Recover the amino acids of this structure.
């Protein structure tokens, strides 16, 4: 279990760092999936099998929503996947913007969305284990990385300056595209408590020190503020070797 714990934490860390330097929309979401798979393996390594399954179910709903929204954006932006050519898409795709941001917030573990119920439970129960400060710190850092790449994706796609790509808003008039997105958005809102009641019929109290109890939300909030303040520096900073190393997935494909 110690080996699985180490591999799962390093998987979460690697995929989170790489996603921050990635510009391909589908690759960012795929790396996000890898990060959440690491979270499930982390849960299994602690013996929390039911929680890993619970996170698998909630993650399936909001990640399906993310991929569908990404497909609509790519289709509507002239078949480009580079988020640098997006920018200001919230004007052309208001409904998809709302749904995709809902999925992103759920992924980050914002309270009362689907992802919060499973991720926060895994984090709080992990805090009760005596693996040492390194495991706890890495877990919170990986949580922060999730928020960082999600905010970056949202900013560059919907809020940031126009990137020069073509965009058409006709996609949102196609109900066969938008219908599943709206349904999955609804499940991303309500599936957390419903699945929680189904999986864990008996309530459980988790007693932790205040700084650990609020640790997850604190890291989510700080990461959100940090990434928003850094967005203006996205193109002015040249990361050089770090950017190349991370952008090529730590040379793992080679």
């Amino acid at each position: 279990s110690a080996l699985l714990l180490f591999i799962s934490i390093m998987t979460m860390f690697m995929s989170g760092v790489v996603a921050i330097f990635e510009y391909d929309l589908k690759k960012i979401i795929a790396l996000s999936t890898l990060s959440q798979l690491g979270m499930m393996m982390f849960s299994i390594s602690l013996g929390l099998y039911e929680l890993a399954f619970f996170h698998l179910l909630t993650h399936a709903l909001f990640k399906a929503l993310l991929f569908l929204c990404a497909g609509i954006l790519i289709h509507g932006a002239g078949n480009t996947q580079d988020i640098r050519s997006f920018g200001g898409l919230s004007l052309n795709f208001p409904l998809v913007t709302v749904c995709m941001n809902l999925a992103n917030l759920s992924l980050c573990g914002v309270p009362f969305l689907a992802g919060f119920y499973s991720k926060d439970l895994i984090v709080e129960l992990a805090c009760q284990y005596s693996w040492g400060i390194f495991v706890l710190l890495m877990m919170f850092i990986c949580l922060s990385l999730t928020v960082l790449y999600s905010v970056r994706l949202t900013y560059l796609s919907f809020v940031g300056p126009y990137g020069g790509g073509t965009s058409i808003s006709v996609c949102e008039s196609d109900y066969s595209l938008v219908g599943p997105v709206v349904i999955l958005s609804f499940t991303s809102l309500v599936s957390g408590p419903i699945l929680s009641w189904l999986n864990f019929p008996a309530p459980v109290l988790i007693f932790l020190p205040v700084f650990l109890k609020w640790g997850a939300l604190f890291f989510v909030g700080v990461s959100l503020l940090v990434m928003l303040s850094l967005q203006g520096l996205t193109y002015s900073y040249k990361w050089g070797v770090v950017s190349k190393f991370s952008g090529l997935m730590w040379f793992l494909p080679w």
